[in-house]
Specification:
Bound molecules: S-adenosyl-L-homocysteine
Number of strands: 11
Number of helices: 15
Radius of gyration: 19 Å
Helix content: 40-55%
Low-confidence stretches: none
Mean pLDDT: 95
Length: 367
């Protein structure tokens, strides 16, 4: 079917989405113009900045694609000190970021849970309760998630990585720590605890088909998710998945698919928050701007202290390794303007979708 006709539809099948994911030339331009227009008319062209603080690369998980997996002995493990985290948060506050994201490897021990709780309380206090806080700290129990929410976090990112359970099994070790259903259950818990809930997938994984990607989009829609971060998979030589690098699409094609995914998702879910992710920029220096031009509305400049940046390499060629926080803030602000968007300073930049869905009980449609 013609892309023009497809874009008039209200609902999309997996095969419609495959057509949109693979269209080229004029059809692609139409798709991108359409998704940009949907963003602009639904939520406007303001971009929300979140200061990303990579608090630690200590991780109990062993995901086969990730550079900070437990078995990688070739990286120096670090934990930012409380002072470093608080000073990064205070930088974000001064520079009117509005929100920060605390991201790190996964830990579930009591010391860690308590420390995050204390940090949340301190960050809230030191910013006069104004800084919004998103967490991205892996799978946690309902009790932990509630504790962190009470301490001040209000958004949480936990990517499902792929909605195809068989593929999930191929990119994770086969044990109870890496279980597709546990991860999905945790996303439901986040929704139940009242977090603005974000998830996402990697694009261009070895063994991933176009149908898988189309199904990922339908999965995000069915989950009624508030925020999405998704980007191209990028190989890392100290991980088991490196062996499958010959099966991958060229990086430029993974980037293109990433942009098509963002564009299609904006059409499917007009009022959610969609991030222009760093992995896009790892392939193309203008990757994030390109995402903002076609419908993304969130950007997360890295404000981790430079001393530890290089040790948080989830994938290779991660950009901004030697870029100071002021420099990266300025650079991002320029890119946002270049993409034709405005920057929204000192606001949380919540997902409109969250407020629209929050009053309905979340239905557990996917098991
Ligand atoms: N521990 C947290 C944060 C993980 S890092 C958690 O479990 O959610 C954030 C994201 O980086 C992951 O969810 C994954 O989607 C992405 N990532 C990891 N390795 C990657 C790679 N090689 N290429 C692209 N993205 C990767």
């Amino acid at each position: 079917m013609e892309v023009d006709t497809l874009l008039q539809q209200k609902t999309f099948s997996s095969s419609d989405l495959i057509t949109l994911l693979t269209c080229t030339g004029q059809a692609k331009e139409k798709l991108f113009t359409h998704s940009k227009k949907i963003r602009d008319t639904t939520i406007g062209n303001s971009v929300h900045m979140r200061g990303l603080i990579e608090i630690s690369n200590m991780c109990i998980k062993d995901c086969l694609y990730c550079g900070i997996r437990r078995s990688n002995k070739h990286i120096q493990r670090y934990d930012l000190t409380d002072e470093e985290i608080l000073s990064a948060a205070s930088f974000a506050y001064q520079y009117q970021y509005g929100s920060i994201v605390l991201q790190g490897g996964e830990r579930k021990d009591r010391t860690f849970i308590k420390r995050i709780e204390q940090l949340l309380l301190k960050i809230k206090k030191s910013s006069n309760n104004t800084l919004g806080i998103t967490l991205s700290l892996g799978e946690q129990s309902k009790e932990t998630l509630q504790r962190w929410k009470e301490a001040g976090a209000h958004r949480y990112l936990l990517r499902i990585e792929t909605s195809n359970e068989d593929l999930y099994k191929k990119i994770h070790p086969q044990d109870s720590l890496h279980n597709f259903h546990t991860r999905l259950e945790c996303i439901h818990l986040l929704q139940e605890c009242g977090y603005q809930t974000g998830t996402g997938v990697m694009i261009g994984l070895p063994g991933q088909s176009l149908e898988d990607l189309a199904n990922d989009l339908l999965f995000l829609k069915k989950l009624d998710i508030d925020m999405v971060g998704m980007g191209p998979y990028i190989e890392h030589h100290e991980t088991p998945l490196w062996e499958k690098r010959n099966q991958l699409l060229p990086q430029t094609q993974r980037l293109q698919l990433g942009l098509h995914m963002i564009s299609c998702l904006r059409i499917l879910m007009p009022d959610i928050n969609i991030a222009a992710t760093t992995a896009l920029q790892a392939i193309d220096p203008n990757g994030r701007e390109k995402a903002l031009e076609i419908g993304a509305n969130v950007i997360m400049p890295n404000i981790t202290p430079l001393t530890n940046r290089a040790n948080y390499q989830l994938y290779e060629n991660k950009p901004g390794m030697d870029e100071g926080v002021e420099e990266s803030t300025l650079k991002i602000a320029k890119s946002v303007l270049k993409s034709g968007c405005k920057i929204q300073f000192s606001t949380w930049g919540d997902s409109l979708h969250f407020y629209r869905r929050n009053y309905k009980p979340v239905k557990r449609q996917i098991k």
